Every structure is written in structure tokens, then in C-alpha cells.
């Protein structure tokens, strides 16, 4: 290592102090309560986004599965499945309507 002059050593010390000051400032920002709260909030938002995305995909898949039960590959309704479901739905709605009318008469 070549001989260093006192000025070189002093310049090196000043440079190191600046680097340390920058590092300490960065650490102070990272551990500041607002920064930590913001990081936690961002992580929670990301987790919610992932969960909502997964739920959306699952719901989309479920709808596609149900739709495939009532519509064929060409997009035409499968009447052998649609008609019985429609009859049951009409019967349930009619029954609920009859019960509601019966309650209102009392």
C-alpha cells in the first residue's frame, strides 16, 4: 500500500463519515413508524388483492362449470336440464308467494 498523506487519510475519513451518515439516514427512514405502518399496509393490501383475485378466479370457474351444465358447446341451451330447473324454480317462487299471501291474510 503506498504511503498516504494526512490529507489522504482525512479525505478518506470524511468520505466514510458521509457514507455512514447516508446509511444511518436510510435506517432511520426504514424504522420510522410511518414507514413501517405504510409497509404493513401495503403488504396487507397485496394480500387482500391476491385473495380477491383467487376468489374471482374460483367464482369464474364455478360459474363456467354451472353454465356448462345448462349450455352445450355450441351455446344452445340444454332443454333436458333447463326445463326441470325452471319448473322447480317456479314451484318454489309460487310456494313462497302462497305462504306470503297466507301470512298477510291473518
TrEMBL record:
Tree of life domain: Bacteria
Keywords, ordered alphabetically: Membrane, Transmembrane, Transmembrane helix
Pfam family membership, one: DUF3618
TM region(s), chain numbering: 82-101
UniProt cross-references to InterPro entries, sorted A to Z: DUF3618 (IPR022062)
Name assigned to this protein: DUF3618 domain-containing protein
Amino acid at each position: 500500500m503506498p504511503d498516504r498523506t494526512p490529507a489522504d487519510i482525512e479525505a478518506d475519513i470524511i468520505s466514510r463519515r458521509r457514507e455512514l451518515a447516508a446509511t444511518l439516514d436510510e435506517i432511520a427512514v426504514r424504522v420510522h413508524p410511518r414507514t413501517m405502518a405504510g409497509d404493513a399496509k401495503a403488504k396487507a393490501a397485496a394480500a387482500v388483492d391476491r385473495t380477491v383475485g383467487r376468489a374471482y378466479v374460483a367464482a369464474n370457474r364455478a360459474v363456467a362449470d354451472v353454465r356448462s351444465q345448462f349450455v352445450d358447446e355450441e351455446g344452445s341451451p340444454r332443454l333436458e336440464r333447463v326445463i326441470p330447473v325452471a319448473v322447480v324454480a317456479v314451484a318454489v317462487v309460487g310456494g313462497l308467494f302462497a305462504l306470503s299471501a297466507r301470512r298477510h291474510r291473518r
